[in-house]
Specification:
- The chain has one domain: Trna Endonuclease, Chain: A, domain 1 (3-Layer(aba) Sandwich), CATH 3.40.1350.10.
- It contains four helices and four strands, in the order ααβββαβα.
- By secondary structure, the chain is an alpha+beta fold.
- The model has no long low-confidence stretch (mean pLDDT 90).
- The protein has a four-stranded mixed β-sheet with strand order 1-2-3-4.
Length: 111
Amino acid sequence: MSVSDFLNNAKKVTVDKTVTLEVTIEDHFVKYAKSKGCLAYKLIILNKRGFPDRTILIGDGKLFFIEFKQKGKKLSPTQITVKKILVGFGFGYYVCDEIGQAEIILNKYIN
């Protein structure tokens, strides 16, 4: 089989351009948080999967966590376990799958 035949027979992958990617939602929020004087850290916890995408530091000792998801995606079992632990310690934990959701949550903390 020639390369041309292979490419013609290969499965074509299409991307739904109407779906907002997780990274797009997250990047939009990080810029917004910075504009409000807040920090939105991406913490990497070694040997601990399921930690939320962002830890948001507001000031006055306030912080909360956000997990960003593509629309329709659910938390993994590990993420659900970590969520229960963080909420059990009294921290806010939110799942956002649209641009603007995390910004509304942040505004509630800073106002």
